[in-house]
Structure formats: C-alpha cells, structure tokens
Specification:
Radius of gyration: 30 Å
Structural class: mainly alpha
Helix content: over 70%
Oligomer: single chain
Strand content: under 5%
Order of helices and strands: HHH
Number of strands: 0
Shape: rod-shaped
C-alpha cells in the first residue's frame, strides 16, 4: 500500500509542478512584453521550458489510466480463495458421509 500511495503522491506533485512551471512561464512572458531586461528573463524562460518538457514527459510515462493495484494482490486472492474452498470441501464431504449408502 505504501508503494501505491507513493505513486499517487508523485503523480499529483508532478501535476502541481507542471502547472506552477506553466504559470511562471506566463508571468515571465508577460514581464518580457512589459519591457523587463531580456537577458535574465530569457535564461529563466529556457530553464522553465526545459523543466516543463521534462515534467510533461514524466507525467505521460506515469499515466493514471492503469489501475493502481497492490503488488501482492494475486497472492492475497489465491490465499483467500483457497480458504473459501476448504470449508466447502469439508461440508461436501460431511453431506456425502451423512447420506445412507445405496447398496
């Protein structure tokens, strides 16, 4: 369960950083259009564009389309189904033994 929580946390923080980078880019473009010094603004713009592209690729790789399942779910299911089958086998044997033999 810890791994699932970590994956969800990473995905949501990645989305937040992506939107933050987008809004910073917008503010820098607006500052540049208003006449801010182009050299530091352009440097920061390039860094933010690179960061935004990296975050976009990371978000597409960690798509949430896949269901987040417990890594040990198959083993848990097998163990529980085995337990469920045991009482029914015992009950079937008891019913069979309680019937009179047809001789």
């Amino acid at each position: 369960m810890v791994e699932v929580d970590r994956q969800r946390s990473t995905a949501s923080s990645g989305k937040g950083r992506y939107s933050e980078a987008s809004s910073q880019l917008k503010r820098l473009v607006d500052a540049r259009l208003e006449g801010a010094d182009p050299k530091p603004v352009n440097t920061k713009l390039k860094a933010l564009k690179t960061e935004k592209e990296r975050l976009a690729s990371a978000l597409t790789e960690a798509s949430e389309d896949k269901p987040l399942l417990h890594p040990n779910l198959a083993a848990i299911y097998r163990a529980q189904s085995k337990l469920l089958r045991q009482p029914s086998a015992i009950l079937t044997t008891a019913v069979r033994l309680s019937r009179p033999c047809a001789a």
